[in-house]
Q: What sequence folds into this?
């Protein structure tokens, strides 16, 4: 039974205090398990790629590991993002990397690092309110986060402002910590329904469109404004497809409305991606 279903059944039947205590305990156990699994993965992958002298994969593992503290998507989400970005560099696809829903900047930074490593001069566009999530709408069934996020360990509801990463925090990661080139990165602050229509022409061709905005309206707005900019063979990543019902609904409706037959590839943690036909 999926974690979220177990969670909502327990929430319904257990007294509130007991539910919250169990929830916090489960979050801690999950967090500790993730850390252990990550450490084992990196150690194993590092030894293996060193032994077989696979420099490309060693670089990938090191980059993902470096970025991990700045993201909510975890190791698997980062690996998928890295592969999408590196794949478009390898295929020489035109266009930039775009992330809608940046939070503390990890996934966007990862794509920009891939572009830097490939010396492609590829640009990245980062769109976010930098004020955290907006209100859910009726299209979003009530959803508890699977694990509490690092900045609010006690959170048990998805309130507006959740998933906050500030503009300054992301700027500092990109330019001070990682030393990325300011000429190749564009950060746009504001709500998507205003910023995306305003900027879609400036953004131009897109090689990787990463949508990580949780809610129905946010996901819908990203697809409606930016999908047409994605080049043929370019990749669209929908980070919350399998974990947030509203996000899935917005994506399915969009694909259906456009008559798009795409093959969704799942990353095993709720995210999915597809190549634009
Ligand atoms: C789950 S977080 C993104 C996580 C991030 N990609 C990472 O690597 O950690 C979702 C982000 O989407 C942003 N967001 C959601 N809906 C938005 C909207 N309509 N306009 C602007 N930003 C939005 C929130 O501010 C939040 O930073």
A:
């Amino acid at each position: 039974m999926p974690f979220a279903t177990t969670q909502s059944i327990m929430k319904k039947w257990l007294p509130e205090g007991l539910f919250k205590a169990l929830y916090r305990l489960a979050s801690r156990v999950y967090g500790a398990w993730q850390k252990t699994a990550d450490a084992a993965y990196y150690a194993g992958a590092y030894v293996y790629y060193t032994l077989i002298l696979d420099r490309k994969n060693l670089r990938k593992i090191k980059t993902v590991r470096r970025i991990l503290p700045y993201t909510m998507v975890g190791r698997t989400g980062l690996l998928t993002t890295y592969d999408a970005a590196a794949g478009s560099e390898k295929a020489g696809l035109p266009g930039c990397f775009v992330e809608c829903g940046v939070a503390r900047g990890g996934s966007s930074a990862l794509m920009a690092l891939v572009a830097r490593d490939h010396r492609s001069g590829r640009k990245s566009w980062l769109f976010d309110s930098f004020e955290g999530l907006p209100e859910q709408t009726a299209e979003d069934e009530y959803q508890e986060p699977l694990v509490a996020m690092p900045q609010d360990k006690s959170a048990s509801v998805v309130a507006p402002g959740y998933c906050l990463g500030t503009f300054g925090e992301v700027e500092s990661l990109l330019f001070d910590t990682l030393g990325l080139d300011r000429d190749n990165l564009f950060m746009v602050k504001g709500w998507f329904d205003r910023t995306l229509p305003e900027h879609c022409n400036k953004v131009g061709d897109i090689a990787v469109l990463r949508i990580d905005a949780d809610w129905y309206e946010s996901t819908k707005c990203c697809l409606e404004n930016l999908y047409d900019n994605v080049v043929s063979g370019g990749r669209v990543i929908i980070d919350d497809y399998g974990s947030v019902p509203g996000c899935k609904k917005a994506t399915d409706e969009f694909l259906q409305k456009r008559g798009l037959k795409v093959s969704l590839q799942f990353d095993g943690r709720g995210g999915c991606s597809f190549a634009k036909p």
User: Anything to note?
Assistant: Residues 71-73, 101-104, 106-107, 128-129, 132-134, 163, 165, 191-192, 212-215, 218 surround S-adenosylmethionine (CB under 6 Å). DSSP finds nine helices and seven strands in the chain.
